[in-house]
Amino acid sequence: MRSDEEHTEKMKKIKSARDRIMEERQGEKGLIVVHTGPGKGKSSSAFGMVIRAIAHEMPCAVVQFIKGGRETGERKLLTTHFSHLCQFHTMGEGFTWETQDRARDIAAAQAGWDKAKELIRDPAIRLVLLDEINIALRNDYLDIAEVCAFLQGEKPEMTHVILTGRNAKPELIEIADLVTEMEVVKHPWRAGIKAQPGIEF
Amino acid sequence: MRSDEEHTEKMKKIKSARDRIMEERQGEKGLIVVHTGPGKGKSSSAFGMVIRAIAHEMPCAVVQFIKGGRETGERKLLTTHFSHLCQFHTMGEGFTWETQDRARDIAAAQAGWDKAKELIRDPAIRLVLLDEINIALRNDYLDIAEVCAFLQGEKPEMTHVILTGRNAKPELIEIADLVTEMEVVKHPWRAGIKAQPGIEF
Fold first, then answer.
1. Which of A174, A113, A177, A173 minimizes the C-alpha distance to A140?
2. Which candidate among A4, A58, B17, B196 keeps its CA 20 to 30 Å from the CA of A104?
3. Coiled-coil annotation: which residues (chains A, B) (predicted)?
4. Out of 3.40.50.300, 2.40.30.10, 3.30.870.10, 3.10.129.10, which CATH number does the structure's domain B31-191 have?
């Protein structure tokens, strides 16, 4: 263990390095944020960011591209308490392995994307979450080139857009500002524990 | 691109595999959840889970082991709107590289852990978030063996405990049920963009 003097010295160094970095970082801009990878936390941290935005009274919007049959906690809470600050759109049934109807899946994804474009174009909306859109892109229900071109060309300067879902396409990662990969270290499903309220939904 | 028939076939297979897995997973129990790694989303996804729990009307509690000077969106929102369902404790100044006083840091971490034990022991509280506790453990402000023994021995069966912060200790990962590592793929700070409301706080 370090002595108290060494500790103080080390903390001083950390503080001065951090202060210097903070001074250099003056830029502010709307970010293209991607949460991908097989681990948990892609959607929940995106919803955490929506909650932060709401707390700062930044108007925001959510488009859900996959919808299970189950009502999620986040949808219930956002639509019950914060509908004045956060629009919530779940596109039709969404598409999932439950529907098994490709034409309907493509139509649902496209309707979601049309709504997403409308929300992103509105400069009053400061943060738009496109939840599980990576699944639609992965299945080629949406055209990755069109999505990237829109985000680069038409997203207002100060608007944040968060795109979640595993297997994010390389083209999207290329144009994104902030990309996090959630890795599974341990998962309780492997031990026979089912999805539980508060944890998975 | 797959033909529609191939697609339907594939989706059928996914659905039946998934249905089978869901049938097998009947267990329900309180989980020890760890969010670690250098990437973004450790705390925001934990707060997303707190929000889910609140939406399901599960009483919960947050202990913050690091406190910057800045009021965070999540604290503001939880204390303003949901104080009936979620207790929020920030221990003193918390400890950071800002304090540069080891004795005070250890006292703050220990006070946080004492509060954490009291909250976890209360079976009415269904989810307890120990935000950034891994930093206190990493700096040996708290004893990892004591923390692990308490979680294994005294946590009520149905209570979820979430522990966040980079550099989670191997002993903690060993006893956890669900561990996610957030990896940085791209970070805008590297491009000179500062921390922004809705994204980082």
1. A113
2. B17
3. none
4. 3.40.50.300
d(CA A179, CA A182): 10
- Provide, as residue numbers in chain B, all residues whose Cβ is less than 8 Å from the Cβ of A27: 191-194
Smallest Cα distance from A153 to chain B, Å:
19
Is B196 in contact with B73 (CB distance < 8 Å)?
no
Of B73, B101, B196, nearest to A28 by CB-CB distance is: B196
Report residue A30 as tokens.
């709307």
Distance CA B38, CA B40 (A): 7
Q: How many C-beta atoms lie closer than 10 Å to residue A189's C-beta?
A: 16
Cβ–Cβ under 8 Å, residues B11 and B3: no
A129-140 CB burial, b ≥16 within 10 A, e <16: bbbbbbbbbebe
Q: Which of B8, B194, B200, B201 to mutate to test the interface with A (most CBs of A within 10 A)?
A: B194
Close Cβ partners of B200 (under 8 Å, ≥ 6 residues apart): B40
Q: Which residue has the tokens 């561990």?
A: B179
pLDDT tens figures, A128-186: 999 999 999 998 999 999 999 999 999 999 999 999 999 999 999 999 999 999 999 98
Residue pLDDT, tens place only, A38-58: 999 999 999 999 999 999 999
Q: Specify the DSSP element, H or E, that contains B181.
A: strand B178-186
The rounded distance, in Å, linking the Cα atoms of A188 and B27 is 10
ipTM: 0.78
Domain A30-182 bears CATH identifier 3.40.50.300: yes
Is the backbone of residue B29 left (phi > 0), alpha (psi -120 to 50) or beta? beta
Which residue in A39, A38, A167, A43 sits closest to B180, CA to CA?
A39
For strands B178-186 and A178-186, give the pairing. antiparallel
